Structure formats: structure tokens, C-alpha cells
Amino acid sequence: MTTALRRGVAVYPGTFDPIHLGHMDVIQRGSRLFERLVVGVGINPDKAPFFTLEERVEMIRLVVAPLSNVSVQGFTGLAVSFAREFEASAMLRGLRTTSDMESEFSMSLMNFNLDPDIETVFLMAKEPHSHLSSTLLRQIATFGGKLDSFLPPVVRDALQSRVRERQAAK
Ligand code: ADP
Fold first, then answer.
1. What spacing in Å lies between the alpha carbon of 170 and ligand 1's midpoint?
2. Is residue 39 part of a domain?
3. Atom of ligand 1 at shortest distance to CA of 124?
4. Does residue 3 register a pLDDT over 80?
């Protein structure tokens, strides 16, 4: 690889459909470990998202605004290419369970093969967030469950109104 990577720069790639307090915790802790953290909002070709890429970027920008060394960008290609764009030497990921461990381990090995200069760094989910997933929260929202302890208020409101729009469109 030609370009030198910057030691204090990390990217945190994910789908964030939508961002929840487990993601926020990883972002806050990452912002203390790295000089600069870029949240990368990607597309998952296997799933139709609740929120468009632009909506997800916008929402995350709102909730990370107090963190001055965190920025947010959308990306459509490989996470390692996104990391290279910012000369990031590290890719941050969160681990909730042993099942995350399996998929995250394969993904980190694949990313290592694609670009061995970029190191994947894992943060273990804190206990209160270890059960949180965007998929579960979309399901709870669809069935009218309470979301206050899992999502920033602006994201909770956006998710509830997206559910209403989707139900009205049926
Ligand atoms: P993916 O990138 O697999 O589409 P997400 O966008 O939900 O999934 O997650 C992005 C990253 O955040 C992944 O590394 C995932 O393991 C991690 N993550 C998701 N939920 C939590 C949580 N509750 N606590 C800590 N990390 C999490």
C-alpha cells in the first residue's frame, strides 16, 4: 500500500438502521481512544433499510454533535476503502455476544486480507446495551413498544414516525 496511515484516526463502519445507545456507547468510548473518529454509514445489500443512507447520516450527525472529534460520512463500497479514504489505521467494531464474535472474527480476517495495514479494534458492549440491536428495535417500534431507554429521543421520534408512514402505506 502506498499512502501512510494516521495512527490516531479510526473509522467505525456500520449500517446504523437506526443508531441506538449501544452504538452511541461505542462512539463515545472510541472518541476517547482516538484523536479522530469517522462514523461510516454503509449499505447492506441483503436488507431493505427503514431509513435511507442520507437519513441515517443526518440522524447520526445530530446525536454525535457534542463530540468534537467525531464526524459522519456515508459510504457505498468496502469498509477498508472507506478507512483508506481517511488514512485511518484502525477500524472500530462493537461486540455484544459470542454470536457477534463469529461473524466479526470472519469479517476482520477478510478485512485483514483486503488491507493488512488496517487493524480492527473491538470494544465489548457494556452490559446495559448488550441486548440492543437495530433489528430488534425496528420490531419493537413496529409493534408499538416503548423505546425510550434504547434510543436517543430524536431517533425514537424518527423511528416511530417511519413506522406510522409504513403502516399507512400498506
Ligand atoms: P452491521 O454493521 O453488522 O450492519 P450495525 O450497524 O448494527 O451492524 O453495527 C455496527 C457495529 O456496532 C458492529 O460492530 C456491531 O457489532 C456493533 N454493535 C451493534 N449493536 C451494539 C451494541 N448494542 N453494543 C455494542 N456494539 C454494538
1. 30
2. yes
3. 25
4. no
Judge whether 85 and 9 are in contact, CB under 8 Å. no
- 134 C-beta closer than 6 A to ligand 1: yes
Of 108, 81, 83, 80, nearest to 94 (Cα)? 108
Determine, yes or no, domain membership for 140: no
Tens of pLDDT, residues 139-155: 999 999 999 999 999 99
Give me the pLDDT at residue 170, please. 80
CATH label of the domain that carries residue 14: 3.40.50.620
Residue ranges making up the domain that contains 93: 9-130
φ/ψ of 66, rounded to 5, equals -70, -15
90 within some domain: yes
For 28-50, write each residue's pLDDT tens digit.
999 999 999 999 999 988 888 99
